Amino acid sequence: MALTAETESRLYRSLRVASGAAAHLVALGFPAAVAVLARPGSSLFSWHPLLMALAFSFLMTEALLIFSPETSLLRSFSRKVRVRAHWALQLLALLCALLGLGIITYNKHLNGKGHFVTWHGLTGLLAVLYAGGQCAGGVLLLYPKLMKNWTLAKLKLYHATSGLVGYLLGCASLMLGMCSLWFTTTVTGASWYLAMLCPVITSLVIMNQVSNAYLYRKRSQH
């Protein structure tokens, strides 16, 4: 029997709620697992994986999920409050990423190793720089009059799209980090594949959220 439009709508909404809940759990669970593996404080390097996981898995994911109509933890609050929370989380993510980058750079310097000579290192550097640029670009949304030839709606759309690119870069850096010697010697077998699945899940949820926001904007124009 064919599903009615109302039933399909409810089913789709339920799937979005379930996927959003999974993204929240993964966003928190992945850094927690990394903390157990890295044992922060046991060495200078141990802070690098934790800070990067906090930046790109937890803080940045939660900063983007704040605008989800189904799974935002602040959906009962006004948009103004959610925007401020988004800003706070993004700045914390950038701070963690910068600290993580600084620590691994200094650690390589102490050990006489080359800087940014792997795909993980290059992608991580690009992700951190991109996050900094994205935060700077977000200022335009606070002061849209600085861009006189752009509407606020268009600025929001481009900021969201650009933010998605930066988020995917961060997730790619995490996945490449899980191919490093440190991670592969610590996590093996099915656990490794499960860990690799974490940024994939959050990326798919965030991409779906951004694409739905774009489609909603297109429909509202007609």
From TrEMBL:
UniProt enzyme class: translocase
Record key words, sorted: Electron transport, Heme, Iron, Membrane, Metal-binding, Transmembrane, Transmembrane helix, Transport
Transmembrane segments: 21-38, 44-67, 87-106, 118-143, 164-184, 190-210
Cytochrome b561 domain residues: 14-217
Keyword Cell membrane: no
Subcellular location: Membrane
Known EC number: 7.2.1.3
InterPro entries assigned: CYB561D1/2, Cyt_b561/ferric_Rdtase_TM
Cofactor: heme b
GO CC terms, sorted: endoplasmic reticulum; membrane
Bilayer topology term: Multi-pass membrane protein
Gene that encodes it: Cyb561d2
GO molecular function annotation: metal ion binding; transmembrane ascorbate ferrireductase activity; transmembrane monodehydroascorbate reductase activity
Top-level taxon: Eukaryota
Designated name of the protein: ascorbate ferrireductase (transmembrane)
Major location (coarse): membrane
